[in-house]
Amino acid sequence: QEPPKPRQIVVNASIGDTMVATRAIYYAEFEKLYGIKVVESGPVNLAKLRAMVESGNIEWTISEVGGEEAIRAEKLGLFEPIDRKIVDMDALPSPMKERKVTLARGVYSTALGYRKDAFKNGQYPTNWADFWDVKKFPGPRSLRARAIDNLEFALMADGVATDKLYPLDVDRAFKKLDEIKPHISVWWSTGQQPAQLLIDREVIMTSGWNGRFYKLQRDESGIDVAWGGAMTKIGTFGVVKGTPNAYWGQKMLALMNDPKLQAAYAERVGYPGTHPKSWDYVDKAALKYFPTSPENLPKVAWTSDEWWAENGAAVEERFSRWLLAR
Amino acid sequence: MAGGALAALAARVPSGPFVLGLPALLFLLVIFVGPVLRLLLLSIEGGSLGAYEKALTDGLYLQVFRDTFEIAAIVTVFCALLGYPVAFYLTTLSRTGSALGFACILIPLLTSVLVRTYAWMVILGRNGIVNRTLMDWGMTDRPLALLHNLPSVIIGMTHVLLPMFILPVYSVMVRVDRELLRAADGLGASGWQVFTRVYLPLTWPGVLAGATLVFIISLGFYITPALLGGGRIMMIANVIEHQVQSLLDWRFAGALSMVLLVATLAVQAISNRVQARRG
Amino acid sequence: MRPWLRRLLRGYSLVVFALLLLPLLIVVPISFSSARYLQFPPPGWSLQWYKRYLYDPAWIEATMVSLRVACGSTLLALILGTALAYSVVRGRYRGRVVVERLGSGPLIVPHIVIAIAIYSLFARMHLTGTETGLILAHTVLAIPFVLAVMSASLRTVDPVLEQAAMSLGVSRIGAIVRVTLPLIRPGIVSAGILAFLSSFDEVVVAIFLSGTTKTLPKQMFDNIMNEIDPTIAAISVLQIALVVVALALVARFGAKAVPR
Amino acid sequence: MATTSQSLPLSLAGIEKRFGAVTAIGGVDLAVEAGEFLTLLGPSGSGKTTLLKVIAGFEMPDRGTVRIGQADITRAPPGRRNIGMVFQNYALFPHLTVERNVAFPLAVRHVPRAEIGRRVQEALALVELDGYQARMPSQLSGGQQQRVALARAIVFNPGLLLLDEPFGALDRRLRQQLQEEVRRLQRRLGLTAIFVTHDQEEALLLSDRIAVMNGGAIEQLGPPHEIYARPSTVFAAGFIGESNLWRGTVANAGHDRVTIALDDGTRILAESTATPGPATALVRPERVRLLEDGEAADNRLSVTVEEVSYLGQTQKYLLRSGDRVLTAVWTLAAVAVGRVKAGDTVAVGWQAADVHVIAG
Amino acid sequence: MATTSQSLPLSLAGIEKRFGAVTAIGGVDLAVEAGEFLTLLGPSGSGKTTLLKVIAGFEMPDRGTVRIGQADITRAPPGRRNIGMVFQNYALFPHLTVERNVAFPLAVRHVPRAEIGRRVQEALALVELDGYQARMPSQLSGGQQQRVALARAIVFNPGLLLLDEPFGALDRRLRQQLQEEVRRLQRRLGLTAIFVTHDQEEALLLSDRIAVMNGGAIEQLGPPHEIYARPSTVFAAGFIGESNLWRGTVANAGHDRVTIALDDGTRILAESTATPGPATALVRPERVRLLEDGEAADNRLSVTVEEVSYLGQTQKYLLRSGDRVLTAVWTLAAVAVGRVKAGDTVAVGWQAADVHVIAG
Ligand SMILES: Nc1ncnc2c1ncn2[C@@H]1O[C@H](COP(=O)(O)OP(=O)(O)OP(=O)(O)O)[C@@H](O)[C@H]1O
Ligand SMILES: Nc1ncnc2c1ncn2[C@@H]1O[C@H](COP(=O)(O)OP(=O)(O)OP(=O)(O)O)[C@@H](O)[C@H]1O
Ligand SMILES: NCCCCNCCCN
Ligand SMILES: [Mg+2]
Ligand SMILES: [Mg+2]
After folding, report:
1. Do D32 and D117 share a structural domain?
2. Is residue C146 part of a domain?
3. In chain D, what percentage of residues exceed pLDDT 90?
4. Which atom of ligand 1 lies at the shortest distance from residue D49's CA?
5. Based on the domain organization, do D247 and D226 belong to the same domain?
6. Å from CA of D260 to ligand 3 middle
7. Are residues B59 and B43 in the same domain?
8. Is C61 inside any structural domain?
9. What is the mean pLDDT of residues D163-180?
10. CB contact under 8 A, E333 and D200
11. Per the structure, how many domains does chain B have?
12. Where a domain ends, among E235, E250, E280?
């Protein structure tokens, strides 16, 4: 016996193209199946989620959070446990299927995007060492105004192997970041900025979420991605603690775990799904733009959510300080 | 007896106008003063002044405060340099002329800050109009970095605040008694002497009022640095927003807010004092 | 003034006027661009960005939210602010100055401070993310404008007119309704427009209070943060048009729009 | 409008009104008869407006009662007092036509439409403004505005008419014209009227009685010529008209006559019943006459002319006798221009009957 | 400051000034002697201010010349004319102390510090404001402000002093006091002064000569009593003082006497050399006397008293004879209060010498 249907549920998730895609694929399906309106909000914001749960003023039914944030959210008790009877996570690879409160829906990378026309005769950058090499690749660059990913990039640029990153040597990373700082013309803060900066020729290369470059790549619009050292992680959703519509939130998670829908979503925005079966439904032409494609997977590095959950706060503060120092 | 006392009391209770002000007063107390005071309490929760210690001793935040004041000062100076002559020019115009002039000032003033900031992004961008033009004219072969830096933030803020400087200065200027200028003229003063000895001192209160307004509003600016600063120009409001939205550190955000508020009120108070002293 | 000085002054002023208007004018051609991304000058002309705005339910919904919030807060601010202005202008009670300062307080207190203060209050009152919350918060921000314009207007009305009305047989409220308010109608129009625009353009508070209900400026802010596409230009042009219409209305029906 | 007068008497008893530390009215008793035109005259700040406001109900007195006819209206709201008031600058509602201005007090009393029309018509006819119904106040001359204000103040048959410096802002010519009109209308309708001014000429011209106010109290109350000729205080003498005032000591001189001995030994003979003691002698400048050779007068003085001012109808002479300066005003009929010049020494004098003695 | 007068004569020749279609000044010739106090008197819009501005140099005349002493200053800038000006409302610099206000004209002339100090001190002493050096204008009374304005206008030894309605905004009492002070100071320094007013009483009181202006031209120029007693135009007669004016036709009556025949057949006997033809007879109200039984007068009229106004020094009577209304003003010395009441019929009269005939 189902609980009564509310008029609507609210899903908080990333904004931009993914929001449009999520609506078209998941929300539309949900509304069709259950006749409950899905209202979207965004962007992802752990702080707000926490304030909501702590004040009991719950606006969201389910919310997306980044990988390392999922661990903090779980510790802070911001999510309801996942109801395995509704959301069948058994097919997911380990350790995703062991998660208690969040569903890993997709995979995404923070990768190196660049303008092809900024480099002569096919001499494109391939990894973060190239990003740091301002002699060979002169021009303005952009990085995110956060420590996460940037520390890894700096270490890789300094020669650390992709599988030897953790625990991060923070001091070394900052020293390396010092080198590139004068060449960063914009420290981006929202997801669409990197692509936009490239399109507007504000920068020649930048870090950015791969989905944001995906369409540009497919459109052959002169923007491409170097997969070397792309920091890869999972995007997760959970049912917000205390929401009156928890049941329907679980139902939404179930849909998000659906391989067919994941495939449609991946094809549309470039973020591959987590359900192994979703691969079967994806157009093969799209595959090479995914971080998990056979040719990209060996080049990428995986973010340690545990390390960031543990050290993130301190490191982010140090990064802010570093960023503002003159 | 009690009735008489009551009547006497009723006669003493401020009536009429005071009562009409009550709803707004209560409204502001609940939705403005109360929350701000609560924020103050929040920032000293548990009787600890730790948040303030951090705000006032930590090099990072001191730097932000310094930057904020510096930017506000620069913007104020620019507004004064650009605005004073224009305000004066407005006072010399005919009816139609000044109507057009005012349109030039009011339209931007009333247009969304977002729209104006967006427009500067379009103009100053690497691929924007200025760079295009410079490159077309061969004055530079590589686009200049005009956006996402201190100058672009200052340009954007000056654009937003210039009308707020011009209006109070203008309002003082039009109230200057022309007779005084004529008197100075008749008493033998040269044009320059009339300006420095009479006009400038007489319009100084307007300059002070306009500058105070611009400076105070500058201190609390958020949008322009957020959009034009490229993540590198942090003003105190941006830090406060970050504390709340990303770090959820209400205590610290509250402390920063209180410091900002006190700074704002202090600037206002100093300005009032200076103005009062001039009589 | 010497003629050459006059010419210099005029030249200087015209340059400043141009700098004030230029950014707004630049937005116009861009809004009609046929390019997919921001490009200037536009390679060709099209209405695509206007269509994109008008056909996107998210934009339209945000616009409707903004309209409702702006109307609500304008109405509320007009009622509260006008009564407050009356109280301050006509009252003789002690503490009047404090009341006036309080009424114009939201103008001086940085918006970011107001925003987070109200946010923390509303979070407890379950008002974040609601239009009611936005209306209340925007009313706080609009009251100083209404107070300034209406007290200026009220000061032009001789209080003796109210006494005259009272001596002729009405109560104080009757005098206000029958005499004072009709006389300051232009002020009401100006104050209303200022209050409306202050809400319709407000970003900082909206950033904190918007949840599922996003105002247009909040939607624009998110959008600008994300992608500088010409949709914003189209919306900008519509907003500038709104302002010009509002100014024309004030010129026609209102008193001086801006507190002096 | 009933032109039959509903005029009522007004009485004030023990009115006091303080604003913080300032005593604006310090115990005023005043009875105004039905149909009387009473003027409150006094310098700025003497409490005239405050007293009027207490009567009209815009201020509550701290103490005392206000009665119109039999009714105690001390605490009634202004709108219930049935008092017509004409304000300084008239206070016409600028957004209403003449007709709707005059209709206002009737409309707020929910008088039926048809009756309003009739009474407004009557009132406008009375002030000779029929045909101006549709004008806005701004389209009227000052005089016409005043008449509208009057029509509005009387259209609802008030028991009392108050006028607070209605001519304060007018130039002299218009002022004179309107003074006459107000007075005429008030007489015609038999209205009880209280009029406030600080212009002594106006007060003398218009009033049945004048109440001279000073420092929140009534110093003297009486008809104009009495106030002018026999002021009861030095203040009243100084405030109304020009005066020669000399302090001295009264001594009896028999036959209803007294002498006032001044410090310098001068003795002034006066017709008065004043009792011996300190007093002030008042001689109005127009009572001081230029004496022809050998002409006799009860009081006689040889003076040097210090200054002559030509005032048109009259000339004013500043005369010196020792340390004493006195003023004389002579018409051209009495002294031709240029006959008496600055520097001349002449004899002047006045009769004992021309001297008024103010005791104290 | 040299108290030795540097006073210079002023002469205007053929001054014309148009503003677009409006002729503000239409051909004015005027010679003001050194040390003279000349008043421009006229109604609003008659060109008084414009003429003063032309003299001060704030407006350039379209035609004509302005001379001070020997120098033609028609085109000199205001600051070079060496003219002291006292503006309506004084135009004191509100941001400067009294001392620095007075020092202003010296400071801009780069007079040495020490001398400035001395001369400011002298000027302030002259206007009796020594000790007020450090006050701001806002801390002064109206009268004190005016004295500062005066000190500032004379401290640099101007050849000419201009005053544009300096008392326009003051109440009557202060006004009188200041009028006297200005006049005294001007005499003492022997300054040439041109004074603008539209107050006839003020003009009569202060001036050596009065220029009556009307429509941009000078209608009459002469000493006050001449202007009052022998106005050369009906306008001047009506503008200055109250008048009984009757239009009629002059016929010779011998012995420097004429008769003026009015429409209704009344004949008025006048001492005049007027030539036969249309003319207006002027009789000032104070010249109309109450005739005792059997008293004779050159002109005699039986009249009904319509209205009596009590004015203190005088009483004003509105008298009717047929369709003709005339005004008489009598002092109390002549007619005791209440002796002549409204409704009475009395005989009044005036001498032929009391009639002034205005030709045309
Ligand atoms: N609302 C008030 N608050 C404080 N003091 C007041 C107030 N109203 C009047 N006063 C004081 O009361 C005294 C009497 O004032 P009031 O206005 O009655 O004088 P007035 O005779 O009408 O003077 P004026 O001729 O200048 O109109 C003055 O000292 C005045 O300053
Ligand atoms: N700057 C001007 N532009 C146009 N017309 C003017 C100007 N100055 C004066 N006038 C006109 O010239 C005429 C004379 O004006 P002026 O100011 O000299 O009169 P006035 O005698 O000083 O009057 P008032 O007593 O009102 O001050 C008036 O008709 C006036 O309207
Ligand atoms: N911290 C939020 C990161 C959001 C990145 N968007 C990825 C979408 C994956 N479905
Ligand atoms: Mg008063
Ligand atoms: Mg003038």
Report:
1. yes
2. yes
3. 54
4. 22
5. no
6. 110
7. no
8. no
9. 77
10. no
11. 2
12. E235
pLDDT at residue D312, as a whole number: 80
Of B212-226, C40-54, E235-249, E323-337, the poorest mean pLDDT is in E323-337
pLDDT in tens, C127-182: 888 999 999 999 999 999 999 999 999 998 888 899 999 999 898 889 999 999 99
pLDDT band at E172; cut points 50, 70, 90: low
pLDDT, average across residues E71-83: 92
Q: Is residue C36 part of a domain?
A: no
C167 in any annotated domain: yes
Helix axes C57-90, C185-200, angle to 10 degrees: 140
Domain residue limits at B26: 15-47
**Position D202 in a domain:** yes
| pLDDT tens digits, D244-280 | 999 999 988 777 889 999 988 889 999 988 888 999 9
CA-proximal residue: ligand 2, atom 7 (nearest): E19
Same domain, E123 and E211: yes
A272-286, B39-53, E167-181: least confidently modelled range: E167-181
Q: Which residue of D has its CA nearest to E330?
A: D331
Distance in angstroms (rounded) separating the CA atoms of residues E54 and E37: 18
Does B106 reside within a domain? yes
Residue-wise pLDDT for D103-133, tens only, equals 999 999 999 999 999 999 999 998 889 999 9
E266 and E225 both lie in a single domain: no
Domain that residue C125 falls in: 78-255
Residue B10 maps to a domain: no
* Full 3-state SS string of chain D: CCCCCCCCCEEEEEEEEEECCEEEEEEEEEEECCCCEEEEECCCCCCHHHHHHHHHCCCCCCEEEEEECCEECCCCCHHHCCEEEEECCECCCCCCCHHHHHHHHHHCCCCCHHHHHHHHHHHHHHCCCCCCCCCCHHHCCHHHHHHHHHHHHHCCCCCEEEEECCCCCCCHHHHHHHHHHHHHHHHHHCCCEEEEECCHHHHHHHCCEEEEEECCEEEEEECHHHHHHCCCCHHHHHHCCCCEEEEEEEEECCCCEEEEEECCCCEEEEECCCCCEEEEEEECHHHCEECCCCCCCCEEEEEEEEEEEECCCEEEEEEEECCEEEEEEEECCCCCCCCCCCCCEEEEEECHHHEEEEEC
Instruction: Indicate which CATH number applies to the domain containing D179.
Output: 3.40.50.300
Question: Domain of B258: which CATH number?
Answer: 1.10.3720.10
Q: In chain C, how many domains are there? A: 1
In a domain, residue E5? The reply is: no
Does the pLDDT at position B227 exceed 80? yes
Q: Which is nearest to A147 in space by CA: A324, A326, A325, A312?
A: A312
Is D129 a member of any domain? Answer: yes
Does the beta carbon of E198 sit less than 6 angstroms from any atom of ligand 2? yes
pLDDT for D3 equals 41
Chains E and D in direct contact, meaning 3 or more beta-carbon pairs closer than 8 angstroms: yes
Per-residue model confidence (pLDDT) at position D239: 87
Contacts of C3 (CB under 8 A, 6+ apart): none
* Residues B22 and B60 occupy one common structural domain: no
Same-domain status, D66 and D180:
yes
Q: Which residues of A touch B231 (CB under 8 A)?
A: 145, 186-189, 323
* Atom from ligand 1 closest to the CA of residue D47: 18
Q: Which contiguous run of DSSP H or E holds residue A75?
A: helix A67-76
Residue D102 domain boundaries: 10-235
pLDDT averaged over every residue in chain C = 89
Peptide bond into B143 cis (omega under 30): no
pLDDT of residue E135: 94
Identify the pLDDT of residue D146: 86
E178/E315 same-domain check: no
Using the predicted structure, report yes or no on whether residue D310 has a pLDDT greater than 60. yes
> What pLDDT score was predicted for residue A68?
85
Q: Indicate if the pLDDT at residue E331 is higher than 80.
A: no
Amino acid at A221: S
Query: Which residue in the block uniquely carries the two structure tokens 């691969």?
Result: A279
